[in-house]
Amino acid sequence: MACIFCRIVAGEIPAEVVARTPEVVAFLDVQPLADGHVLVVPRAHVPAVEDLEPDAADELFREVVRLARPVRDALAAEGTTIGVNNGEATGQTIPHVHVHIVPRWSGDGAGSVHSIFPRKTSRPLDEVGAAIRRAAGDRQGDLGLT
Ligand SMILES: [Zn+2]
Fold first, then answer.
1. Residue 45 known to be catalytic
2. Single pTM value for the model
Protein backbone atom coordinates (compact mmCIF):
# COMPACT_ATOMS: atom_id res chain seq x y z
CA MET A 1 0.00 0.00 0.00
CA ALA A 2 1.95 2.98 -1.29
CA CYS A 3 -0.64 5.72 -0.80
CA ILE A 4 0.38 7.78 2.20
CA PHE A 5 -3.23 8.65 3.06
CA CYS A 6 -4.28 5.00 2.94
CA ARG A 7 -1.38 4.26 5.28
CA ILE A 8 -2.49 7.03 7.67
CA VAL A 9 -6.06 5.69 7.55
CA ALA A 10 -4.71 2.21 8.36
CA GLY A 11 -2.66 3.59 11.25
CA GLU A 12 0.64 2.55 9.62
CA ILE A 13 1.92 6.12 9.58
CA PRO A 14 1.40 8.38 12.58
CA ALA A 15 -0.68 11.48 12.08
CA GLU A 16 -2.27 14.12 14.28
CA VAL A 17 -5.79 12.77 13.84
CA VAL A 18 -8.60 15.15 14.78
CA ALA A 19 -11.61 13.02 13.80
CA ARG A 20 -12.46 9.49 12.75
CA THR A 21 -15.75 8.12 11.51
CA PRO A 22 -16.51 4.77 9.88
CA GLU A 23 -16.04 6.43 6.45
CA VAL A 24 -13.69 9.35 7.01
CA VAL A 25 -10.46 10.31 8.78
CA ALA A 26 -9.33 13.89 9.39
CA PHE A 27 -5.80 14.82 10.39
CA LEU A 28 -3.42 17.77 10.38
CA ASP A 29 -1.40 18.40 7.22
CA VAL A 30 2.28 17.82 8.02
CA GLN A 31 3.14 20.76 5.78
CA PRO A 32 0.50 23.17 7.02
CA LEU A 33 -0.37 26.31 5.08
CA ALA A 34 -1.53 27.75 8.40
CA ASP A 35 -1.93 26.50 11.97
CA GLY A 36 -4.90 24.15 12.04
CA HIS A 37 -4.67 23.06 8.40
CA VAL A 38 -6.78 19.89 8.36
CA LEU A 39 -7.12 17.26 5.64
CA VAL A 40 -10.34 15.27 5.51
CA VAL A 41 -10.08 12.02 3.55
CA PRO A 42 -12.40 9.13 2.76
CA ARG A 43 -11.10 5.85 4.19
CA ALA A 44 -11.46 4.24 0.76
CA HIS A 45 -8.75 5.03 -1.77
CA VAL A 46 -10.50 7.17 -4.36
CA PRO A 47 -8.34 9.31 -6.66
CA ALA A 48 -10.79 12.02 -7.70
CA VAL A 49 -14.00 13.61 -6.46
CA GLU A 50 -15.92 12.25 -9.43
CA ASP A 51 -14.91 8.72 -8.44
CA LEU A 52 -16.57 8.96 -5.01
CA GLU A 53 -19.63 6.81 -4.45
CA PRO A 54 -22.62 8.94 -3.42
CA ASP A 55 -22.59 7.71 0.19
CA ALA A 56 -18.85 8.32 0.48
CA ALA A 57 -19.30 11.81 -0.90
CA ASP A 58 -22.07 12.46 1.61
CA GLU A 59 -19.95 11.27 4.51
CA LEU A 60 -16.90 13.21 3.36
CA PHE A 61 -18.67 16.51 3.08
CA ARG A 62 -20.70 15.85 6.23
CA GLU A 63 -17.40 15.61 8.13
CA VAL A 64 -16.08 18.78 6.47
CA VAL A 65 -19.21 20.58 7.67
CA ARG A 66 -18.88 19.06 11.15
CA LEU A 67 -15.23 20.15 11.48
CA ALA A 68 -15.45 23.63 9.98
CA ARG A 69 -16.62 25.30 13.20
CA PRO A 70 -14.27 23.43 15.60
CA VAL A 71 -11.27 24.21 13.38
CA ARG A 72 -12.26 27.86 13.33
CA ASP A 73 -12.88 27.97 17.09
CA ALA A 74 -9.73 26.05 18.05
CA LEU A 75 -7.50 28.48 16.16
CA ALA A 76 -9.53 31.62 16.85
CA ALA A 77 -9.77 31.94 13.07
CA GLU A 78 -12.09 34.37 11.34
CA GLY A 79 -12.88 31.96 8.54
CA THR A 80 -11.64 28.93 6.67
CA THR A 81 -10.73 28.28 3.08
CA ILE A 82 -12.10 24.87 2.12
CA GLY A 83 -10.86 23.34 -1.08
CA VAL A 84 -9.95 20.31 -3.13
CA ASN A 85 -7.19 19.98 -5.70
CA ASN A 86 -8.86 17.48 -8.02
CA GLY A 87 -6.46 15.93 -10.55
CA GLU A 88 -2.74 16.15 -11.13
CA ALA A 89 -3.03 19.31 -13.25
CA THR A 90 -4.49 21.16 -10.26
CA GLY A 91 -1.52 20.41 -8.03
CA GLN A 92 -3.03 17.35 -6.37
CA THR A 93 0.10 15.52 -5.29
CA ILE A 94 -1.50 12.57 -3.51
CA PRO A 95 -4.10 10.80 -5.66
CA HIS A 96 -6.47 10.11 -2.78
CA VAL A 97 -9.31 12.62 -2.45
CA HIS A 98 -8.68 15.08 0.36
CA VAL A 99 -10.49 18.21 1.40
CA HIS A 100 -8.35 20.98 2.85
CA ILE A 101 -9.72 23.07 5.69
CA VAL A 102 -7.34 25.98 6.21
CA PRO A 103 -8.01 28.52 8.97
CA ARG A 104 -7.94 32.13 7.82
CA TRP A 105 -7.58 35.52 9.46
CA SER A 106 -8.06 38.91 7.88
CA GLY A 107 -4.68 40.22 6.81
CA ASP A 108 -3.11 36.75 6.78
CA GLY A 109 -1.59 37.44 3.38
CA ALA A 110 -3.35 34.62 1.57
CA GLY A 111 -5.79 35.25 -1.24
CA SER A 112 -9.20 33.89 -2.02
CA VAL A 113 -9.82 30.87 -4.23
CA HIS A 114 -10.28 33.37 -7.05
CA SER A 115 -6.70 34.55 -6.66
CA ILE A 116 -5.23 31.25 -7.91
CA PHE A 117 -6.71 31.72 -11.40
CA PRO A 118 -5.40 34.06 -14.11
CA ARG A 119 -8.96 34.35 -15.53
CA LYS A 120 -8.04 33.06 -18.97
CA THR A 121 -11.44 32.44 -20.53
CA SER A 122 -12.36 32.37 -24.19
CA ARG A 123 -15.77 30.73 -24.53
CA PRO A 124 -19.17 32.34 -23.96
CA LEU A 125 -21.11 31.21 -20.89
CA ASP A 126 -24.05 29.81 -22.88
CA GLU A 127 -21.76 27.61 -24.96
CA VAL A 128 -19.94 26.32 -21.89
CA GLY A 129 -23.19 25.76 -20.03
CA ALA A 130 -24.61 23.76 -22.94
CA ALA A 131 -21.45 21.64 -23.14
CA ILE A 132 -21.62 20.80 -19.44
CA ARG A 133 -25.33 20.00 -19.65
CA ARG A 134 -24.64 17.68 -22.60
CA ALA A 135 -21.81 15.98 -20.70
CA ALA A 136 -24.08 15.52 -17.68
CA GLY A 137 -26.35 13.59 -20.03
CA ASP A 138 -29.13 11.74 -18.27
CA ARG A 139 -28.82 13.92 -15.20
CA GLN A 140 -30.36 16.89 -17.05
CA GLY A 141 -33.78 15.94 -15.77
CA ASP A 142 -32.43 15.90 -12.22
CA LEU A 143 -31.07 19.38 -12.74
CA GLY A 144 -34.40 20.68 -13.98
CA LEU A 145 -32.82 21.76 -17.25
CA THR A 146 -34.77 19.69 -19.79
ZN1 LIG B 1 -5.12 6.14 -0.74
1. no
2. 0.91
